[in-house]
Amino acid sequence: MKSNGKTTIVASIEPKQILKELALTIPSADLRTGSEQNTNISNLVGEFFHDNKKLKKNSISSIINELLTNGLKYSDSDSDIKLNSYCSNGTFCVLMENVCSAPQLNYLKKYVNTVVKSTKSPNDLYIERSIALSENNELTRAQLGLIYLMSNFGCILDIKTQDIDGSCVVSTTVLFNGVLE
Amino acid sequence: MIQEYKEAGVVILFNEPAKTIIIDGEMRHASLIDFKPTRQFLWSLIPAIQKAEALTIDIERLEYLNSSGQATINMFVLELKRETKNVAIKVKGTKKYEWQEKFLHTTKQLWGNAHPPMIIESI
Hints:
By secondary structure, chain A is an alpha+beta fold. Chain A is built from 6 helices and 6 strands.
C-alpha cells in the first residue's frame, strides 16, 4: 500500500450518459508540503465538474479541499490518497480512500460516531462545535471538517473502514446534489 | 489608519475610520494552528473595535473559506460578542459564492440575541 510518489490523473467524459469521471491518485507526502497542492487539485476537480447549472466550481472545489484535508489528517505519511469522482445527472459523487494507522483509526471512529451518526442536525452540530471551540479556546483540532461538509453543502457522508493486507483502508463517500442546505 | 495583514492567498484590511474589516482571497489552511497569525491579527483589532459604534466585516471577495477558516472567523465573532458592548456588527457577503449564504446565516445564529442585533447583507 506504499505510495510510488507520483500523482496520476485519469479522466473520461461520456456525453450520451451525461457522465463525467475523474480518478486521481495523490501521494499524501505531496499534500503535506503545504496547502498549495491541495488547492490546485481541488480547483482542478472543481473546473472539471463545473456545469453552469447546479454544480459550481466553487462548491466542488470547497468539498474536495475539505475532504483531502480530512483524508490527510488520517493518512500514513508514505501512502497514497485515491480520489474517484463522477457526476451523473447533476449529482456529484466522490469516493476517497486513504490508509491510516491504528491510533488514527481509533480517533477517526470516535469522530465519526459523534458527527456522522449523530441524531442532531448538521446545523446544530456546527453551532455547538463552533461555540465549544471558542469557549475552550481550542487551537489543536477544529473537528469541524465533516460537519462543515454536511452543514454548509448538504453533503451526505458514508465512512467505512476495512483491513486490506494488514493496512487499514478508510473509504469516505460523499454525495452532493448541488443544492446547498 | 489602515492596518493590513497579508499572507499567501489572503489579504485582511482594517480600515479604522470606515469601521470596516475586509477579507479578500481564500482562507484554506489545513488546521487552526496554521491560522494562528491570522487570529493574532484579528484579535489585535479588538481594542479599536471596542471604541467604535459600528463594525462591518466584508467577506464579499472571500472566494474560499474552509472549516478551519470558518472556525477562526467564528471564534473572532464570538470574541466580539463577549468583548464589545453596543457595537453594531454587520457582516456583508455575496450570493456569488454559494457557501457564503449558509455561513452568513450561521454567523447570525452564533451572535444570537446579543444586543445590538447583527445585520447580515448578501448582495
